[in-house]
């Protein structure tokens, strides 16, 4: 039955993503210009994919799984999608605050950027999600150990949400990465969330690769939060801690190293990254993280 529910979660997520994207395109809130940005080629691209993917993942999650697992995933995805959307639509383009370090530095100086609000909001929702989630292997027996486990799980959910936003710098990249991470998690206790990510990603990837849509912070944060929660729900404590170490390490590296440059200089990664995408135009300059 659980396998059928996961298939159903993927199907519902895909259908809901398509339906939400069609509805938003028919009548975009605030008008189409509100959602239009310029991509790496200097061409217009729509951010409407992000809310559509968020809605699709939520729909898929709601059709299967236990009550606590569903509640945890919904909180994480809503937090990632909503606070990412605030940053997408309200970011002050006149400031040059970029990256996690930049936003945290602004917070330390008493200045709340939309990126800083996103950090706080996703962090808070991740903490609630981690508290709700029944972690694989059962909770730790001692209060201090339980608290540490919850904090580590919250950091994993929030960190994964942020990491997938850092990957959303080229068409299809974040969706491909999300699918690769989600696939092995489908057979775990976090399988409903992973299946929902696969369903939503499979629907969104065509327009993303065609460069008419992009995930934006909303969609990328929502996908990452869903996958972080799937890891919390479906993997053992050592695996969760190992995943957290990888997420933290990649986030720190991203402050100084361009993921795009690394991918383009690595043949296997370059081929996977370019699959399905229009031939790359000559690029100038390094990527700017958000």
Topology:
Blueprint: H1 2-26, E1 36-38, E2 44-46, H2 49-61, H3 67-90, H4 99-108, H5 114-132, H6 143-167, H7 173-182, H8 191-209, H9 216-234, H10 237-254, H11 259-264, H12 267-274
Helix pairs in contact: 1-2, 1-8, 2-3, 2-8, 2-9, 3-5, 3-9, 5-6, 6-7, 6-9, 6-10, 7-8, 7-9, 8-9
How is this structure best summarized?
The protein is an all-alpha fold. It contains twelve helices and two strands; from the N terminus they run H-E-E-H-H-H-H-H-H-H-H-H-H-H.
What overall form do the CA principal axes indicate? globular
- Helices and strands, in N-to-C order? HEEHHHHHHHHHHH
**Share of residues in helices:** 55-70%
Q: Kindly state the number of beta strands.
A: 2
What do you see in this structure?
The protein is mainly alpha-helical and 290 residues long. It has one domain (2-33, 44-274). It is 68% helix and 2% strand. The chain has twelve helices and two strands, in the order αββααααααααααα. The protein has a two-stranded antiparallel ribbon with strand order 1-2. Helix 2 (49-61) packs parallel to helix 9 (216-234) and helix 6 (143-167) runs antiparallel to helix 7. The longest helix has 25 residues, at 2-26. The chain is globular. The N and C termini lie far apart (41 Å). Mean pLDDT is 88; it is low at 282-290.
């Amino acid at each position: 039955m659980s396998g059928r529910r996961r298939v159903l979660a993927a199907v519902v997520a895909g259908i809901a993503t398509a339906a939400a994207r069609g509805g938003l395109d028919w009548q975009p809130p605030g008008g189409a210009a509100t959602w239009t940005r310029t991509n790496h080629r200097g061409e217009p691209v729509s951010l409407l994919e992000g809310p559509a993917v968020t809605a699709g993942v939520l729909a898929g999650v709601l059709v299967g799984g236990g009550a606590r697992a569903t509640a945890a995933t919904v909180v994480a995805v809503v937090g990632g999608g909503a606070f990412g959307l605030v940053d997408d639509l309200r970011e002050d383009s006149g400031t040059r605050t970029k990256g996690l370090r930049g936003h945290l530095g602004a917070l330390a100086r008493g200045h709340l950027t939309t990126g800083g609000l996103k950090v706080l909001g996703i962090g808070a929702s991740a903490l609630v999600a981690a508290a709700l989630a029944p972690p694989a292997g059962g909770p730790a027996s001692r209060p201090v150990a339980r608290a540490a486990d919850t904090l580590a799980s919250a950091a994993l959910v929030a960190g994964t949400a942020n990491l997938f936003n850092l990957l959303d710098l080229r068409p299809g990249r974040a969706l491909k990465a999300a699918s690769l991470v989600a696939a092995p998690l489908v057979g775990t206790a976090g399988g409903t969330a992973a299946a929902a990510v696969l369903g939503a990603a499979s629907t969104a990837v065509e327009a993303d690769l065609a460069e008419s849509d992009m995930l934006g912070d909303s969609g990328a944060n929502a996908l990452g939060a869903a996958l972080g929660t799937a890891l919390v729900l479906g993997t053992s404590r050592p695996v969760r801690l190992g995943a957290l170490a990888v997420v933290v390490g990649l986030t720190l590296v991203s402050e100084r190293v361009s993921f795009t440059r690394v991918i383009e200089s690595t043949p296997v990664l370059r081929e996977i990254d370019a699959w399905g995408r229009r031939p790359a135009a000559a690029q100038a300059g390094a990527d700017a993280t958000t």
